Design the sequence.
């Protein structure tokens, strides 16, 4: 090989995406409407990462950049699960969860809520979330497997 040249790359087999190459995880039965997940986080990159982590469940995603916007989205249509950050400008995730639990909409008030935080004072944040009625709590950074386990626990697959 001459200096300054790179070897030819080996050919890569032509693969098409199939069910077996997707992330492992439970999937809803065929003909079942996708469950709707509301992602409430002031970081677009975190919301994108959460969507990537949760792709195995074929969710329909709704997004909000703030708790206030999240309340409007949650009240505008059915939601099956809410994932919210604790630290956001304005209303925090615990106050947001408390507002959801206090909703006059009986179905919305019972929606599972997963609260996340990167705050070093985990015990205090967890206590605030539990007082507000969250269903589950996780510390950031969260792994894909950890998030899927929590989601599968608090939001069963829909039945046909």
Sequence:
């Amino acid at each position: 090989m001459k200096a300054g040249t790179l070897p030819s790359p080996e050919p890569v087999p032509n693969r098409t995406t199939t069910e077996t190459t997707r992330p492992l995880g439970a999937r809803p039965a065929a003909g079942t409407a996708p469950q709707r997940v509301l992602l409430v986080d002031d970081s677009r990159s975190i919301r994108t990462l959460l969507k990537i982590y949760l792709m195995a469940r074929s969710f329909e995603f709704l997004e909000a950049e703030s708790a206030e916007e999240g309340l409007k989205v949650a009240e505008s249509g059915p939601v099956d699960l809410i994932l919210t950050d604790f630290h956001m400008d304005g209303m925090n995730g615990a106050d947001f969860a408390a507002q959801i639990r206090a909703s006059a909409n009986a179905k919305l008030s019972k929606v599972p809520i997963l609260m996340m935080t990167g705050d070093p004072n985990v015990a205090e944040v967890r206590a605030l979330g539990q007082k507000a009625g969250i269903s589950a709590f996780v510390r950031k950074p969260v792994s894909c497997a950890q998030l899927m386990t929590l989601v599968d626990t608090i939001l069963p697959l829909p039945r046909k």
In short: The chain has six helices and five strands.
